[in-house]
Amino acid sequence: MSPGCCDVKGIRMIKVAGDNVGLTGLDATCERFHLEGWSPGDRGLEAALVEALRDAGNYITPSVEYAYQAALRDLYRKFYAAKAPRGIKSSSTQGGRS
């Protein structure tokens, strides 16, 4: 990789199955899901995140989709917790979206 390769605006590096991968639109996707009311424990969250990131132009290899889902679930859980007002614990076990 050349110096500055990962400084492209809108691309965020995350670790998936031990590899660093760049995703475009990740922050906007997390923000959108939060505004739509998704909680970390909601059924279908991981698959919906992968689909949204594909729609944003990212190629996610089907053979590692589950690894992406796990990485995105963990990332969204941290994002969600950071958005919670202080003194209120977020629960990832409630779920509730259908």
Summary?
With 98 residues, this protein is an alpha+beta fold. Helix content is 41%, strand content 12%.
What does this structure look like?
This protein is of the alpha+beta class and 98 residues long. The protein has one domain (7-83). 41% of the residues lie in helices and 12% in strands. It contains three helices and two strands; from the N terminus they run E-E-H-H-H. The protein has helices at 26-35, 45-55, 65-83, and strands at 11-16, 19-24. The protein has a two-stranded antiparallel ribbon with strand order 1-2. Helix 2 crosses helix 3 (65-83). The N and C termini lie far apart (42 Å). Mean pLDDT is 84; it is low at 1-7 and 92-96.
Low-confidence stretches: 1-7, 92-96
Radius of gyration: 14 Å
Query: Would you count the extended β strands for me?
Result: 2
Q: Can you tell me the number of structural domains?
A: 1
- Indicate the percent of residues in helices: 40-55%
Please write the string of helix (H) and strand (E) elements.
EEHHH
- Tally of alpha and pi helices: 3
Termini separation (Å)?
42 Å
Strand order of the largest sheet: 1-2
Average predicted local confidence, pLDDT: 84
The main pleated sheet reads as:
2 strands, antiparallel
> Which structural class do you get from the secondary structure elements?
alpha+beta
Which range does the strand content fall in? 5-15%
Shape: globular
